Amino acid sequence: MKNNKILPIALLAGVLMLSACASKGGDKETDPASSSTEPVYTITEAEFTALQAKLANPKIFIEGNFTVDMSVGVFSFKNKLANGKVDCYIQGEHFAFDFDVDSYNATTQKANGDAYLYDSDDEKWEKETDEIDVAKCASLCFQFEDVFYYAPSFDSFTYNEETRQYSGSKTIDEDTTLVTKFVVKDGQFLSYEVAGYISYAFSDYGTTTVTLPTVA
Predict the structure, then answer these.
(1) Closest Cα partner for 79 from 206, 215, 214, 203?
(2) Burial (Cβ within 10 Å: 0-12, 13-18, ≥19) of residue 134
(3) Measuring CA to CA, which of 4, 24, 99, 173 is 20 to 30 A from 121?
């Protein structure tokens, strides 16, 4: 194993910057009007703020289950979360993680687990097992916290009923105004974009799977 290709996980923190309630009346027929599955493409301010906070929380790496196709400039990456198993790209490097979800410490934002890095020179996966700084990994993988920081206030967004898209702008300085656009469905993002900077396309909520690499 080449020491310069993967760092021990103890050093990773310094290098790396996601019910249906059953009725007790089992014999009672369900009212069709009360079980409508019509999708909802709007969101309240409280829901929007809570969704941003959820995605920016490092615990999303432990509990999340979805796929994100992420584009930054000319680069595109597919990141997957599957309840503690992660397949993602960090600073252009292909990583995978297998977290011991019960070991996650909300205070330190760390968890025990396996970290895999793809060695593109030797075309093989390498693996380390140790405590992992989940916050650093999640931050660099998704950049949600930084991206959401530049979102305008919710009341600045306008909603287009035809495209189902919210759009709003925020002036950062005299020369920079960022336009944010997003689409939601049933309280989850389908897409989120800061025009000219970064975009996300979300899919496979609750059905994403991650196959961990095989290490020779």
Answers:
(1) 203
(2) buried
(3) 99
Q: What is the DSSP string of 103-169?
A: G-BTTTTEEEEEEEEEETTTTEEEEEEEEEEHHHHHHHHH-HHHHHHTPPPGGG-EEETTTTEEEEE
- pLDDT tens digits for 194-209? 998 999 999 999 999 9
Distances (CA, A) of 164 to 12, 40, 133, 174, 183: 41, 10, 37, 30, 6
pTM of the model: 0.80
Tokens (6 digits) for 202: 């979300």
CA distance 32 to 190: 27
**Bridge-partner residues for 44, per DSSP?**
none
